[in-house]
Amino acid sequence: MNATFSGPTLELPAQLKRGLQAGHPWIYRDHVPRGFQAASGTWVKVRAGGYAGFALWDETSKIALRLFSERGVPDADWVRERVAAALALRRSLLDDQTSAYRLLYGEGDGIPGLTVDVYGAFAVIITYADSLETLVPWVVRALTELLKLHGVVRRARVRDGEPPRLEVLHGRLPPRDLIIAEHGLRMQVDLFLGQKTGLFLDHRANRRFLGELCAGKRVLNLFSYTGAFSLYAARAGATSVTSVDISQPAARAARANFALNGLDPEQHEFLAEDVFEFLERTRQAGTSYDVVICDPPSFANSREQQKNALRAYVSVNSSGLRVLEPNGIYAAASCTAQVSSEAFRGVLAEAAVNAKRRLQVFHDAGHAPDHPIFVGHPEGRYLKFVVARALPIA
Questions:
Q1: Above 90 in pLDDT, residue 245?
Q2: Each residue's pLDDT tens digit, 359-377
Q3: Could you tell me where the DSSP H helices lie in 237-305?
Q4: For residues 249 and 263, what is the distance between their CA atoms, to the nearest angstrom?
Q5: What is the pLDDT of residue 336?
Q6: Taking a C-beta distance cutoff of 8 angstroms, is the pair 105, 115 a contact?
Q7: In the chain, fewer beta carbons within 10 Å around the N or the C end?
Q8: Domains: count for the chain
Q9: Residues 51, 103 within the same domain
Q10: Between vectors from CA 169 to CA 165 and to CA 172, what angle results, nearest 5°?
Q11: Which of 210, 194, 212 is nearest to 257 (CA)?
């Protein structure tokens, strides 16, 4: 770490001091003095009411500055220390039957704006701002020194509507049919075109918890993607699992994952269909399930979309509850960062009223332990996962 600093220094509003001291790593553009200019990736010293720290400047991101250290400008050794500390935590949390996990969770591991997911012998890096390019070579070096990897790749940032693209940073590309392990289950993941980096790693603990409640039950998994929740339910002894996702490739992948684990796909359903249309058709047919899982994609990418997201959550959860047996188990999730835990519980309360049910929550969780957050950065807790009994009106 560099002991001396000759770069630019910015004086920020003094009221930011408490938040920065508590570990909040973001400084938005409207808090930066007007007229300041620098290239993305420039290290900047910031001061706020006696607080001092070192941040990366970004020209285009809504987050103008991301804070990394109070001691000095980070270097390759500093990054290696952060990666090593993150790896030590994961090794203490994960069992030897799990080979896919989040190694670096950006802000939660002290490297804001950058994540690393490990899938067996491959690591996938994602950066969320141009400024992070400064750190990528150091992260790659740390990964190759600390882990036995066949390849380190990056999900390149592309424009909306364009397919994801993998860029090799070390070693070689992963195979298209890469298979990972999760609590003893085997899953094929597509690191090239899959959602997130290939698998929703943040739900790992939630899948395990819910799966154990599905023995002997008829299970409906909405927005099922490649069937991870469905796999846990079937392994636990669910009598039937219906997986619904609008993507035909996702439905095929879910079926393949069942076969990969010795679970007969013919005993279950894999439907490529719009979830809202499926739920309406199911309600009209009078079909119901003992367990319903509703884990939709994010309905908002900005604060301006929050109201529409809340309405969408109310609609889909109302419909999901209407096809649930009385006293059945309802699992609802939201990955929309703009919807708080309190707002999401409000959504579920409204949906329960619409469906003429009373929701008795007995499990309220977030993302898996390999997604740590600092107490001073509550925005890091984006995932909400609620499991409840849907009781009839008393």
A1: yes
A2: 999 999 999 999 999 999 9
A3: 248-260, 275-285
A4: 19
A5: 85
A6: yes
A7: C
A8: 3
A9: no
A10: 85
A11: 194
103 and 50 fall within a common domain = no
Which stretch of DSSP H or E encloses residue 182? strand 178-182
Residues 333, 246: one domain? yes
The structure tokens listed for 55 are: 């941040």
Measure the CA angle with vertex 122, ends 83 and 88; round to 5°: 30
Same domain, residue pair 360 and 272: yes
Q: Are residues 102 and 33 in the same domain?
A: no
- pLDDT of 164 > 80? The answer is no
Burial class (CB in 10 A: 0-12, 13-18, 19+), 33: exposed
3-state SS, residue 226? coil
The H or E element containing residue 123 is strand 122-127
| Residue 210 CB-half CA count within 13 A | 34
Which region, left, alpha or beta, applies to residue 91 given φ > 0 means left and ψ of -120 to 50 means alpha?
Answer: alpha
User: Considering the entire predicted model, what is its pTM?
Assistant: 0.93
Compute CA distances 34 → 7, 30, 216, whole Å.
18, 8, 63
pLDDT, tens digit, 9 for 90 and up, residues 126-147: 999 999 999 999 999 999 999 9
CATH number at residue 164: 3.30.750.80
Confirm if 150 and 121 have CB atoms less than 8 A apart. Answer: yes
Beta strands, E only, 201-349? 218-222, 240-245, 269-272, 289-294, 324-334
Q: What does the pLDDT average to over 59-64?
A: 93
The phi, psi pair for 53, rounded to 5°, reads -160, 175
Q: Residue 169 belongs to what domain range?
A: 76-180
Domain membership of residue 209 (yes or no) is yes
The residues that are catalytic are 335
Nearest to 46 by CA among 23, 76, 74, 16: 16
pLDDT of 297 above 70: yes
